Amino acid sequence: MAALLYFPKISSEVTSSHFLSLSPMDLRRLSRASYLFTRRLKSIEYARKSFHTSPYLQQQLHRPDKSEEASSDRHLRERLSAALSRRSLDYEQCKQLITILSPHEFDRLFPDFRSKVNPKTALDFFRLASDSFSFSFSLRSYCLLIGLLLDANLASPARIVLIRLINGNVPVLPSANDSRDSRFAIAEAMASLSLCFDQEIRSKMSDLLIGVYCTQLNRAGCYLALDIFPLLASKGMFPSKTTCNILLTSLVRAKEFQKCCEAFEVVCKGVSPDVYLFTTVINAFCKSGKVEEAIELFSEMEEAGVAPNVVTYNNVIDGLGMSGRYDEAFMFKEKMVEKGVEPTLITYSILVKGLTKAKRIGDAYCVLKEMTEKGFPPNV
């Protein structure tokens, strides 16, 4: 621009002869000004093209303000709420929704209108979207659906949804932590919804999850159920006593006696142990050779006001017998009779086998005689 200040004034009628009369200094100034002007034009053209081709700039240009986004969310939420609160699914209405809906949007909006949802209609919507349109719902959306189904006493459909989710039979929205075990991620998603449901439904959700893991995934499922138990417990999602016992029994069957005892300690933080939970852990102690711990837990059980049953006594008697402590085993048999718990065929069989193995034939014969008098056929 500085060169233009020295550029000689030339009228519009100037001819080529005038240029020929310019001094060398004027020509150099003219050349310099032309170069600068050309560069300026190229810069402007480049900026114009960059603006039209830059995705970021285009996104910022067309990005709606917060009020527009809120209005759009509210409109979409209302449409979803209306569609999923119907008594039956409107195919055409839902088809239109699916075409304009993203999995992230559904995941964000679904919890807002969950109280208005008809669980059966929502289930049909999920089936339609995933099976016909390969729509990938998030894990959280699936877990919220499971909770709504359980709240409506639709346990069977909820179980089917969970099993399909575990087996990878439905498209799922990828998460930022895809390196984790997807089955653990399901538990995390379920735990994140703890505030969406009351204690009864939270318990049903953990019952379903732990029950399916223990029964559908065999030994691996037991370990996984044990891993997710503290996570669920930290969110106040304690399973029922029945489900806790399923977990402990599964660990005993897998010969994970120490893990069973550790799980029992976690269980006791959320539920009051009953006779079945105590008995399962006593069995774990006896099978692992920790008879003293079994007897100690037996005493704690009585102090807690929980009456041992015949299975509890049989476990302790068997544990004492395997440790060669037959006199104490007899004492426990007498104790159960005093407490009004009748010995069973299993009780007598445990004693006879143990005494015979220890070559205490006379004692074994006395037990057989009592067994026959009680009406049990000798089968040992």
UniProtKB/TrEMBL annotation:
PANTHER family: PENTATRICOPEPTIDE REPEAT-CONTAINING PROTEIN 1, MITOCHONDRIAL, PROTON GRADIENT REGULATION3-LIKE PROTEIN
Gene3D superfamilies in the record: Tetratricopeptide repeat domain
Organism of derivation: Noccaea caerulescens
Protein name: Pentatricopeptide repeat-containing protein, chloroplastic
Keyword Repeat: yes
UniProt-listed PROSITE patterns: PPR
Source domain of life: Eukaryota
InterPro entries per record: Mito_RNA-Proc/Resp, PPR_rpt, TPR-like_helical_dom_sf
Keywords: Repeat
Keyword presence, Disulfide bond: no
Family that this chain belongs to: Belongs to the PPR family. P subfamily.
GO molecular function list: mRNA binding
PPR repeat intervals: 274-308, 309-343, 344-378
Record-linked NCBIfam families: PPR
